[in-house]
Structures are given as C-alpha cells and as structure tokens.
Amino acid sequence: MTATYTPRPAIWCAGCGHFGVQGALVQALRESGVPVERVIILAGIGCSGTIQNNLGTYGYHALHGRVLPTATGTALADPSLTVIAAGGDGDGYAIGAGHLVHTFRRNPAFTYLLMNNATYGLTKGQDSPTAPLVHPDRREQALDGILLGLAITTSTFLARGYSGRPEQLVRLIGAALDHARSGRGFAFLEVLSPCVTYQDTYPMWDAAVSDVDEVAGYDPGDRTAAFGACLRVMGEGRIPTGLIYRGGRPASLPDPAPARAVVEGRADEYRETLNAYRV
Amino acid sequence: MTVTATRVRDDLTVAVAGQGGDGSLTLIGLLTRILSARGFHLYSARSVASRIKGGHAAALLRGSLADRGGLGDVVDLLVAFDEEAITRLGPEMAADGIVIFDSSAGPVPQGVLPDAVVVLETPFARIAVRDLRRDLYKNSLAFALLSRVLSVPDAEALACMRLGLGRLPPEVREANAEALRRGFDHATEQGIPDGSGPWSLAAGVAGERLLISGNEALALGFLVAGGRFFTGYPITPASEILESMERHMPRFGGLAVQAEDELSAVNMAIGAALTGVRAMTATSGPGLALMQEGVSHAGSAEVPLVIVDCQRAGPSTGMPTKPEQSDLSMLVHGGNGEFPRVVLAPGDPGDCFLLAVAAVGFSRRLQCPVYIALDQAVSQHAATVAPFDLDVPIEPGAIVGGDDLAGLAEYRRYRVTADGVSPWVVPGTPDGMNLVTGNERNEWGQVSIDPETRRVMMAKRARKVASAVDDLPRARRWGSGNAGVGVVGIGFAVAPLREATERLAGRGLAVAGFQPRTLWPVLEETVAFVRAHRVTLVVEHNEGGQLLHLLAAAGAPLERMRGIRRCDGLAFAPGELSDLIAAEAGR
Lengths: 279, 587
Prior knowledge:
The complex is a heterodimer of chains A (about 280) and B (about 575). With about 280 residues, chain A is of the alpha/beta class. Chain A has helices spanning about 15-30, 65-75, 90-95, 95-105, 145-150, 165-180, 200-210, 225-235, 265-275, and strands at about 40-45, 60, 80-90, 110-115, 120, 125, 155-160, 185-190, 210, 240-245. Chain A has a single domain, classed as Rossmann fold (3-Layer(aba) Sandwich). An 8-stranded mixed sheet of chain A has the order 2-1-3-4-8-7-10-9, sandwiched between helices. Chain A has a two-stranded antiparallel ribbon with strand order 5-6. In chain A, helix 1 (about 15-30) packs across helix 6 and helix 3 (about 90-95) crosses helix 4 (about 95-105). Chain A is globular. Chain B is of the alpha/beta class. Chain B folds into 4 domains: about 5-200, Pyruvate-ferredoxin oxidoreductase, PFOR, domain III (Pyruvate-ferredoxin Oxidoreductase, domain 3), CATH 3.40.920.10; about 210-385, Rossmann fold (3-Layer(aba) Sandwich); about 400-470, no CATH class; about 475-585, 3-Layer(aba) Sandwich (Rossmann fold), CATH 3.40.50. Chain B is built from 19 helices and 24 strands. In chain B, strands 7-6-5-2-4-3-17-9 form an 8-stranded mixed sheet, with helices on both faces. In chain B, strands 10, 11, 12, 13, 14, 15, 16 and 22 form an 8-stranded mixed sheet that branches. Chain B has a 5-stranded mixed sheet with strand order 19-21-20-23-24, sandwiched between helices. In chain B, a hairpin with a 7-residue loop joins strand 3 (about 40-50) and strand 4. The two termini of chain B are about 50 Å apart. Classes of the chains: A alpha/beta (about 280), B alpha/beta (about 575). Chains A and B meet through strand 2, helix 2, helix 4 and helix 9 of A and helix 1, strand 9, helix 7, strand 10 and helix 9 of B. Strand 2 of chain A pairs parallel with strand 18 (about 435) of chain B.
C-alpha cells in the first residue's frame, strides 16, 4: 500500500459546530460504502474550507466563493466520482452567491455542504449575509438559501441540518450523497454550525430549529407546500430544518465522461471535421 | 463603359458594403469560390459596427497568388449598396479601381472617389423588388456584374451560385439564378459582354487549402491535442471558440459549457482539469481581468489549464469589435503573486492551430497555466492555410496511474523534483489520495507557512518553465538574414510587416523580420535578434509599447529599439508600413 498524506486534526476551536458536520460526514460516507479514493472534497475559503484536509479523501482547496463552479467542472468531467463541495455562509451566500443561483439552475450531480455559522470566523467575526438571523436589529436582512433554492424551479434537493442534531444530520448527508451519486443532481444541504468563538448560537438554535420531517403529512415533493411551510415556520421566528424539497427533473450527465474520452487515434474523424473548411 | 483592353489581376482586394444584413457575406462567399478555383490565396475580413444586426457593414476579401495573409493598401473593386459605402470606403479606393454601385436611392455622391475610378451604376434593389419581389436578390444581380467585370464566364458564375446556395430551398435558388441572368443583361447593356470585362483573373495552381479563422483553427487545435473540456462566457471577439467547441465536442466525447460569467468559466475549467481532462477557456480583455484570480490559482495549485485571450481595444469595454495588443502586460504579469506561466502568440490561423496544440502540451507537461494571445483580427478574420497535420503526438504529462502507484512506497502530490514537475495522480485512483491547494503547502499538499518550505516550493515552481525553455515555440523569421534593420511584430501586425519587408527589398532596403511566438518567457533568440541589428523596429498595436518594454526588461538593448505603434483599431497597410520603416531606418 502506498503511503499518502496523513489527515491532520481539524484546526477549529473546541466546541465548533464544524466538528459535528465532519463527524456526520464521516459516518454518512462510511454508511454509503463509497471507497475513499472515489471521493473528492472541494472546499472554499474560511474555517469550513479546511474540512478536506482531515478525512483522507482526495481534497481540493478552491478560491473564495468559487467552490461551486470548480466542483461543477469536476463533476461534469468525471461523473463517476463522488464530488462533495463544502464552504461557509460567506463563501456561498456572499462572494459566491451568483454561482449558487446558477448551480441550482444547472443541477450538476454533486453535494454541497454549506456550513452556516452566521459570521466570518476566520477573519474574526465580521457580519455574514446570515448574521441578521442572530442579530435581527441589523439594517440588512438575512439571505435564506433554502427559499432561494425553492424559487429556482430546476433545483432538485434542498435540506437544512443542524450540527447540534447529529442523527438528523447523518440522515440528511446520506440522502444528499445518494441524490447526487444516483445522478439526480445538485444536493444542497445547509448546516447550521455554530461558531462558539464569535457567535455562539447553540442556545438560540437549539430552541429555534423546527424539523419538517416531524410534521405529519409533510410532502418534500411539493415545492409550493415546501415554500409555504418554510415561510410559516420562519414567521414564528424559528428555522425550518429537515429534507425540505426533493424532486424535479434529474441531471443530464455527460456520457461518456470527458475525463475518459478517447484522445488517441482519431485523425480520420478530425479530418472529417476539417473538411467543412475546405475551399 | 467600353472595354478596350483586359488587365490580368493576380492580387485583388474586393469590398462589399452596405447596411448589416444586406447579404454582403454571401457575395463574398461566392467570390471566394471563383478565386480559390484559380489558386488564389484568400484573406477575408469584416468591419462591423458594434451592433447586433444592421449598422454599416463591410466585408473585404483579398485574393492573391502570393500568400499575403492580410489586406493590401487599397480596395480595387467596391460593391456599394448605399451612399454610405461610398463615403466610408471611397477614400480607400485604388486610383484605377472600379465601383459597382446600387443607384436605387440616388446617384453616386460626388467628390469622394478618385477621379479615374470607373463607376457602374445599376438600381439593384429597385430591380430586385420590382421584378423579383425581394430586396435580397440584389446580391445576385450585383454578383452578375462583379463576375462580368472579372471576365468570369457566365456559366461558371451560375454554377458557382448554384453550389454556393445549395442549402437553400429550390425556389429560392431558382429566383437567385433568375436574378443572376437579369444581372448579366444589365452588364451587357453597360458594355461588358460575357467573358471579356475590364479585368481578368490570373491562373494559378489550385491547392488543397482551408479557409478558416484563427478562432476556429484554435478550437480545432485544442481538440486535436486531446482537449475535451471547454468553458466560456460569450464575449466579442472570442465567442466563435465557444461556438466551435459546442459544435465539435459532443462527437469526440468532450463537453463545452457556457458559464454564467468568466469567474465561473475559469474555475469550472480548473475543476475539470483536476480529473485529468485537458481543459481550456477563452475570453477577451474584460473577461481576462475577471479570470486573473483563477489563473493565479491554477499557477499556484499546479493545475494544467489553457486560457485564450482574443484581445480587443481597451481599456475597459473599449472598442469591442476592434483589434489591439494591449493585454500583453496583463498576460505576462497579471494575477496576484508570482507563478509559472507561458504566453504564446500566433500570427495567423495556421499558427493558431499549431500553438493551440503546443499550449495543451505545455500546460500538461508543466502543470501550469498557458495563455494563447490573439487579437480580434487574428481571431475573426479568415485566411487560406494548408490543411493541418492531424497526427499530432498527445503529451501525456506526468500522470501516475494505479499500476505505477502500487509500486511506490509513498506518493506526494507536490514532490520536489529536478525539473519542478511533480508526479500527478488524479481522483479515483486507489491509494493516491492527495490534497491540492492554492495555498503554500508542503510536498503532501498540506498548507504551510514555514519559510524553508516556502523557499523550496517557490523555487520548484519556477524551475518548471525554465525546464521547457529549449522546447517552447520558436519565432518565425523572414526577410534578409544580414540586414542592419530588424522588425518585430506579433498577431495581425505580422502580415503587413512581411509584405512591407518584401517591398522594401525591392527598393533596395534589406530588412530582417521576426515574429516571436513565445512571448513569455522571453526567449534568448528574441533578445539576440535585437542585439544583432543596428536598429530594431517593434511594431505593435497599443500606445505604450508593451512588447518593446517586455523585450527591454528581458535584456534587449533599449537604445537599439524604436517603436512603430497604433491603437486606433486599424491594421497597418503594407505601403504605409514600408514608408514608416524606411523613414525610421534612415534616421
């Protein structure tokens, strides 16, 4: 067996919500049975953007805000890989928000874990686009990624978990991995993941989360109902979690994978292409 | 007119001008067939106002038995569908030129054309609408006059049109044939009989040739070199690369993706390249500015990537449809930090194919970004070239597969090696798991700010390009080998420079020409060229002399270089350039 890099201990502060996300991801990956060499985790910039260093899979550290186009390229070029993008709320909802919209629209088959702590932890506590979740007195209002995803009608998987509810989180990550791996498309999973140093939201979120899975008769296949249910829960000052929406048209996967396209011995076919330019 | 003598032409520039949508490109397309059947080399240019449809448009075609690859000094034959065509192109006319004018809206404006220019006036649009019920048939009427002026037999013109319009419905083809016949009648009335017009075309040897633009040739080069993943965001003048890729990729198992912006395009290409697929993106200056962060990232993370810049006039949104060479500094120095890169600069469509192949190969071999720098004219103008060699060797790169890996005790993604290139294991390979990052890192890919690690890694990356210097694409040279005067140019400056050099030789001034095809790193041969001449004139399309200063920074003696520059969106004419070179050489 060839020795490769040794996964390092996480750099996060003791008590950071990201430990919960990482633990749940490890368990969900184990339960999925995907061999470790088939997994690539692409991470953005921020505290969350170090998770790929800790797990022994293939890892990529993308530019701030660009993890979604990067992961889209990877997933389209080799759909046989289990592609997981990870990043924070600054990465996904601020600098990279434009890409999030187009990733919903494009529906490539990979999983995106957006670890939302409502702050910029790595740069020491500035407001992120979700900070008003915690500070309702702010002049600007919070961005809600689930409502955004629901509004884009080609989205196929929208869920929210909480690192303080590990059993639900393992189940949601498993469902997301399954959604992407089976080729149905982009699995968006926002995880509420408190920053104990700059924004300790554990007490607040423990009380605020409201699991749609526990609502009798909730149908995650009904986009309209999902939208209404989220707004209702939010109107009560709570945060909807669980598998909020799953449905829509499956992704269109490149076949064969561009990464395995035959590049040798095709001169005759090239010549036919060239003929269009003959004079 | 009365034809007294027929003059044989072996070099002819024809312009067709009118409102955009008049169909001038169709007419030029028909003429292309006539000329190439006689062995003429072709160069086809468009001048379009930057609007979607409409606005004044001119299509230019130069046919010459000598391979010129650029426009000449003047327009010999102008087909003008409106007055504006005369006012715009009249000053460009040869003193002995001929104008075919659509007089539907009135007579030829006075005082614009040189006195000796012959004007053939026919109300094409009026006849087309009156007799054939459709304005567009004026093109076929005009084509009849054009072919009579060039003494092309009627039968050949008719056959050429049937072939050229082969994809149209039969009734449309027949109506065009009828328009052509009526056009012949009008030509006869004007004193130009079948087969004996004022000019005739010289007979050359028809060769096997392609008529292709730089953008299209570059797209084919990428494909043939093994490229199978392309991303782009529409931008003039790079969009044809995206369009070509969308056309070609599916057949060859590749993928072309239209991204939501250039930030996405460059990062999507990087993400794809991680899997081992050969990836490229293409843009123009404003898009390249957005991509800088991504290119720096590919340089740091050591991801192979080809980026095409079809340069247009800047700054900012500038003149989107006009060529310039003012991104050179951004290509060579842009992006945060210092990272290995290569910048290649083709001078014509054939060169675009070759350098696309080279770019894919070097990006793969060196695991770094490679730029290809075009300009709008090289990108979008079409020229005849010899068919490409399609049996190019595919550069495998330092990929380590599963079997090779099994024999290794350990694998480090960023292993320090003599040439700086580390063995590369792509995701999906058992036991090769690795970390790739734009941060500084140790050999294992683990982020590090240790000063010694930093020194080692910076030096490792710098060695990569140095290791390939002897193999990077060499310059093209022309003119006299032992002249005192040298000229240097890239992109669309090359064709008029070659022609000017030839004319100056005829005037007794020996000039040596040099087109550097690798702009970065600046090769020793480029510096040596400047050193070898008493004076070297650096001809470029920008204001500040970016190429000249790039050469000077690399050690070319500044006191031996002088610049000839323009940044008004226009190409140099060979005659104008000859005079400028002669004047500078005499100083």
